[in-house]
Amino acid sequence: MHAWLCENPTGVDALRWQELPTPTPGAGEVLIEIAAASLNFPDLLIVQNQYQFKPTPPFVPGSEYAGWVRAVGPGVTHLQPGQAVACLTGTGGFATHTAAPADRCIPLPPAFDLTDAAAFIMTYATAYHALIDRAALQPGETVLVLGAAGGVGTASIQVAKHAGARVIAAASSADKCALSQRIGADATLDYSVHTAAGSFRDELKRLTDGRGPDVIVDPVGGDLAEPAFRSIAWRGRYLVIGFAGGPIPRLPLNLPLLKGASLVGVFWGEFARREPQANAAMLQTLAQWYLQGHIKPVIDRVLPMTELPQAYALMAERQVRGKVVLRNDH
Ligand SMILES: NC(=O)c1ccc[n+]([C@@H]2O[C@H](COP(=O)([O-])OP(=O)(O)OC[C@H]3O[C@@H](n4cnc5c(N)ncnc54)[C@H](OP(=O)(O)O)[C@@H]3O)[C@@H](O)[C@H]2O)c1
Asked: What are the start-end ranges of the E strands in 243-296?
């Protein structure tokens, strides 16, 4: 087998594509032949030693992937060799093979495309947990999605639309806004044009007939968080998802008071750990939505697994629209 090995988490340049012994799955593990893996923002942070979860080096990055079970370890009963699976294991995915905990691998129905499956769990689970579970989104409500053309952003547009909401997609270029509209957003807000807080708020007011959005999806943080929160509707819910923009914003606590609004933390990984049954039910619903054609990962491009550094560069340079997938057969 081959894998991208991180011996020292000092950044993408330190990763090496290396031949390694193919692992034998231990108790509760399965050996996966990886067909495809996708890049998520935490994969970028983890090789820079900046993510909350810090694996002990050497490790193979790649949190999310799909492929086939090739061998099962002792005690594994729900998976068999030959079965197609999607896995979310934190590490191991940027490789040709990995030994994965069996309980982190979900059997896939035959109609589930493996490229889509590799780019599915993290973003859709986060979007669904945020919008449906944490924000209790109602049909007819208006959702503002920041960073709308990113992984979490594109999934949030699709989940919110399928839940019957009106979606305003906000992103940093006309091109990203156009993509957001193509996948279902009702209106867009280009924050490379409306850069000043006042202009951003005026445009949001115009797009919501003065009411403001009921729900705000924020995977970006940074300078737009405060003007976005100031624009929220009465009883609004502001979903704190991530800080791809860098600095963690601070908000004056009078703002939620004035709008009767809620600041809602979203941590899907911890939800999955603490509430496994609710998470499993949610993933089943999402798989059904996919098979019924209501949601589909937006794949920016598919690259060979050996070109992982290019995928990382696109993400760091804010160039990804949706998701980048790496395939072993490319
Ligand atoms: N809380 C949870 O449970 C959870 C789960 C999954 C992910 N996350 C977090 O959500 C965030 C987004 O993840 P993702 O996989 O959707 O990432 P992504 O695909 O890279 O999207 C992030 C978006 O952030 C915007 N952005 C603004 N400043 C940026 C910068 N300096 N560098 C990169 N992007 C920047 C970009 O949109 P514009 O160019 O349009 O501004 C980009 O499309 C990350 O912080 C991730 O850790 C949280």
From this structure: 262-265
AA letter at 239: L
Torsion sign, CA atoms 44, 304, 37, 172: positive
Per-10-residue mean pLDDT of the chain, 330 residues long, equals: 97 96 97 98 95 94 98 96 97 98 95 97 98 98 98 98 98 98 98 92 97 98 95 98 93 97 97 96 97 98 98 96 94
Nearest-atom index, ligand 1, CA of 152: 16
Q: Is 93 helix (H, G, I), strand (E, B) or coil?
A: coil
266 lines ligand 1 (CB under 6 A): yes
Residue 12 has what DSSP assignment?
G
| Pairwise CA distance, residues 80 & 65, whole Å | 18
Please name the helix (run of DSSP H) or strand (run of DSSP E) that holds residue 67, with its range, or none.
strand 64-72
Q: Is 223 in the pocket of ligand 1 (CB under 6 A)?
A: no
The response to whether residue 188 sits with its C-beta less than 6 Å from ligand 1 reads: no
- 76 C-alpha to ligand 1 centroid (Å): 35
Give CA torsion, residues 266, 272, 274, 280, to 10 deg: 130
Q: How many angstroms separate the CA atoms of 88 and 128, rounded?
A: 16
- Which one, of 92, 88, 115, 114, lies nearest residue 303 by Cα? 115
Residue 67 CA to ligand 1 centre (angstroms): 25
Query: Ligand 1 atom 12: the closest Cα is on which residue?
Result: 219
CB 151 less than 6 A from any atom of ligand 1: yes
Torsion sign across C-alpha atoms 220, 269, 68, 62: positive
pTM > 0.85: yes
Predicted confidence (pLDDT) per residue in 104-124, tens digit: 999 999 999 999 999 999 999
Asked whether the beta carbons of 2 and 18 are under 8 A apart, the reply is: yes
Distance 82 CA to ligand 1 centre (A): 34
* pLDDT tens for each residue of 127-138: 999 999 999 999
- Decide: 217 in ligand 1 pocket, CB within 6 A: no
The neighbour count for residue 69, using CB atoms within 10 Å, is 23
**Ligand 1 neighbour 160 (Cβ under 6 A):** no
